[in-house]
Write a structure and sequence with these properties.
The chain is α/β, with parallel strands linked by helices. The protein contains 18 helices and twelve strands.
């Protein structure tokens, strides 16, 4: 089957994913928090950035390589961390890591993934990163860093924009708890999605394996919280300094929205800033993440990563043109998994690459360094 004929865009994978996933899994993956206005703002911020096409550029050959954190990457994007990926599809983390390794792009494993760093060691490439939800206990913190390093992860990503559990009302209404409990309501939803049920039956029930070593038997949590919240601290600059002293590789801070935070983090020795609103999953009153990129870019010499709302190659070009050095996608790769199984991530990479090249052709840009200055577009009228 020609996947590009059947699923030419991320939107096609998203539609197929929704048809294959039980409602409680779909709502876990796709929902934001509150009224989900923050999620909508991410999309609006991207849609309001455009370019003036260029003409008469003759034959074009595209170069999508980029240099980031003193490394050369064949593509300017990677796989963002998503907690409990294994709930979306059995073997999700392995499939994502293997696809990223084959493409030579970063894959980021979440602290609350359904696989541990040790589980992932045989599947990761040299560009495997680990996203850290900050443990309070110094001994647990040091032990976790040791495990991550020994498993082969090269880069540490500290998430700082989740000081408390978000409510995620749509996820709560769907009936999902942590850990998932197979209530009659959820079983009825599963019965309507046989492809997902068959895939999940091949393995054990998803759980946060990284944390098994530190905690067990703690099940009485709010429905949108999970066991990680019992370990987690709300980090401060002292915490960042401790990590910088105890982690030998690149250290990235994820969840930066204020330009005023850039200078203290740069002086603390971090290696990159990650502009993100957690995909609209944490705070419904946040602006679109892309709106914050130019100001943060102007405030620091550090490399800048962007995520939140990216749905195609044009979105990646928009972020790069506004000052991002690298772009990460979470939901898009998981739509691919849910739609196509283990082959989904490869197809997502193909879609993004093809879409970038098609749009670069319109812009007369043969490399990412040739992108023209972006321009503001008028908001689209509501349908």
């Amino acid at each position: 089957m020609d996947l590009h004929s059947t699923y030419p865009g991320i939107a096609d994978l998203k539609e197929k994913a929704q048809r294959r996933l039980p409602k409680f899994v779909w709502d876990y993956l796709d929902s934001g928090t509150g009224a989900e206005n923050g999620k909508a703002r991410n999309r609006q911020a991207l849609d309001q950035i455009g370019f003036l096409p260029r003409i008469l550029k003759g034959p074009m050959h595209f170069d999508l390589t980029t240099r980031f954190l003193d490394r050369n990457y064949p593509l300017p994007f990677g796989v963002a961390p998503v907690g409990m990926s294994g709930l979306v599809w059995q073997g999700a983390e392995q499939a994502l890591a293997q696809s990223a390794a084959q493409a030579g792009i970063p894959y980021v494993l979440s602290t609350v993934a359904s696989q541990s760093p040790e589980d992932m060691a045989p599947h990761i490439g040299p560009e495997a990163w680990f996203q850290l939800y900050p443990p309070k206990d110094p001994e647990i913190r040091q032990d976790l860093l040791n495990r991550v390093r020994q498993a082969g992860f090269s880069t540490l990503v500290l998430t700082v924009d989740v000081p408390t559990a978000s409510r995620r009302e749509r996820q709560t209404r769907s009936g999902l708890t942590h850990p998932p409990r197979l209530t009659p309501r959820l079983l009825a939803q599963i019965a309507q999605r046989p492809a997902w049920a068959t895939a999940m039956a091949r393995g054990s029930r998803p759980r946060m394996r990284t944390l098994d070593k530190y905690i067990s038997g703690q099940d009485n949590l709010p429905p949108t919280a999970h066991i990680g919240y019992l370990l987690r601290a709300s980090p401060d600059m002292e915490y960042v300094t401790w990590l910088r002293d105890h982690w030998e590789g690149p250290l990235i801070i994820k969840g930066v929205l204020r330009a005023e935070d850039a200078d203290p983090l740069q002086r603390a020795g971090v290696d990159a800033l990650w502009v993100s609103t957690h995909g609209g999953r944490q705070f419904d009153g946040a602006p679109g993440a892309l709106d914050r990129v130019p100001e943060i870019r102007a405030a620091t010499d550090l490399p800048v990563i962007f995520d939140s709302g990216v749905e195609g190659g044009l979105d990646i070009l928009r972020a790069l043109a506004l000052g991002a050095d690298f772009v990460m996608l979470g939901r898009a790769f998981h739509y691919g998994l849910a739609a196509l199984g283990a082959s989904g991530p490869d197809h997502v990479i193909d879609i993004l690459k093809s879409d970038m090249e098609a749009n670069m052709g319109q812009l007369g840009a043969q490399s990412l360094r040739d992108l023209p200055a972006p321009m503001a577009l008028r908001p689209l009228a509501p349908p």
